[in-house]
Amino acid sequence: MKYFEVEFTILPYSADASDVLAAMAGEAGFETFEETETGLKGYIQQSLYDASSLQTVIEDFPFESITISYEVKEAEDRDWNEQWEQEGFEPIIIADNLMIHDGRHLPDITPDITIEIDAKLAFGTGTHETTRMICSTLLELHPKGRVLDCGTGTGILSICALKLGAKEAIGYDIDEWSADNARHNAVINQVDDQFTSLLGDASILNKVEGTFDLVMANINRNILLNDMPQFVSKMNAQAILILSGFYTDDCQLLIEKAQTFGLTLQQQKEDQQWACLVFKR
Predict the structure, then answer these.
(1) Contact, 155 vs 198, CB < 8 A?
(2) More confident residue, 111 or 102
(3) CA-based angle 162:189:119, to the nearest 5?
(4) DSSP-derived pairing of the beta strands 67-74 and 3-11
(5) Residue 12, preceding bond cis, omega within 30 degrees?
(6) Could you tell me which of 148, 151, 202 has the C-alpha nearest to residue 173?
(7) pLDDT tens digits for 43-70?
(8) What are the tens digits of pLDDT across the range 219-275?
(9) Residue 141: how many CB atoms within 10 A of its CB?
(10) Are 121 and 155 in contact (CB under 8 A)?
(11) CB atoms within 10 A of CB 175
(12) Distance CA 268, CA 275 (A)
């Protein structure tokens, strides 16, 4: 997936101005930020970049005494995952009875549930707070029936749900490599006969028949807000929606959005600055 790197210069620099700029740029589609001595570096998918939206952010910046300039360039196209591919990750234990591991680091013990992930990306293996929170939530819910995995990544959430008792899981991702990797990991974990991996964004749900007992999405805040109508359209009566991939400061915004669709907040988890919300229809 290709990204633009946008380097913002804030003059005069202040931490408050940097925080406000990050929040406003996040509304324009930026996914992550890196602090610099004079401002921020922001990263956005090239397909989501809108020069006019970014210019609006600059023009509407509320600090009158501050000027902001920026430069846009393609993010470095290097093998970000080379070290990860070579080293993998140590086994991860969640709630004592779920272990996630790769093929290079076999577990010394065998808990109730094991998931092997052949991953070339750290995100989606259980090393990230959001993935761990959703997995721990699945352990509490013991999902049954049909599961929808929005932004499936490595497929770990679908695999976890299937091993806990779900009958079928459908996952989709906009990244071709992720869709293929999720399918591959389902084979490794011997649940491929219950798992379908699709390539596309939320619009692909128009081609998916039926509704689901559980919908889960581990994606950034802006995509969650934008795609929530599609998520809800695929939830059956009494279905559960699990959302993560965002910061604790974003919780209220997502809760209010979910309430407009008649969803009721059931649980809120936090790990470091990350959050996970559970809703019921």
Answers:
(1) no
(2) 102
(3) 110
(4) antiparallel
(5) yes
(6) 151
(7) 888 888 999 989 998 998 988 889 999 9
(8) 888 889 999 999 999 999 999 999 998 888 889 999 999 999 999 999 999 987 789
(9) 19
(10) no
(11) 16
(12) 7
